Amino acid sequence: MNTVKIEIKWALIFSIVGLLWMVLEKALGWHDEHIDQHMYLTNLFAIPAIVMMVMALKDKKKNFYKGKMSYGDGFKSGLILSLIIAALSPLTQWITSTIITPDYFANATKASVELGYFATTAEAEANFNLQNYMIQGAIGALVMGVVTVAIAMIFIRSKSE
Questions:
Q1: Which of 32, 77, 106, 133 is the most exposed place for a label (fewest CB within 10 A)?
Q2: Alpha helices in the chain (DSSP H)
């Protein structure tokens, strides 16, 4: 348990920040009156997501590996972190969809048909629903986490002397 304590801590931080981001998106109208801009603006979450992954890896390097962490050790830590975030993703999506912004799927369905992204409401509903978002969120968290860690570890790893 002590070997993954830092990853668990940062996965929880990541999940909480993700929920706060959803509150911000809702407050800015990206889930209703400005939903046509949502698919572009929501990608701004990549900035805090990358920052948190880097902070987690630096925390692991400093406090677990005592300042000396190989690329492989960091990648393994980041993979574990990404797996935990992905495992928490369905819960955070449920909280988002039922508590923070329960009208999002209806709003997204309506707007996507009006804007011509989907031909019918049924097609849009097949995309904009809790089950689909839970699956996409978990897979997306894992893939983006692994890619971020693979790149970040080039800079964070301890250089051989």
A1: 106
A2: 5-27, 38-41, 46-63, 71-95, 104-114, 121-127, 130-156
Per 3-state DSSP, the chain is made up of helix, strand and coil in percentages (nearest 5) of 80, 0, 20
Q: Sign of dihedral through CA atoms 96, 100, 103, 107?
A: negative
Q: Which residue has the tokens 């677990």?
A: 64
Q: Which residues contact 70 (CB under 8 A, 6 or more apart)?
A: 157, 158
pLDDT in tens, 15-61: 999 999 999 999 999 999 999 999 999 999 999 999 999 999 999 99
Q: What is the pTM of this model?
A: 0.94
Rounded to whole angstroms, the Cα distance separating 156 from 61 reads 8
d(CA 147, CA 75): 10
DSSP label of 31:
T
Give the DSSP letter of residue 97.
I
Rounded-to-integer distance, Cα 34 and Cα 30, Å = 5
Comparing CA positions, the residue from 109, 90, 108 lying closest to residue 15 is 90
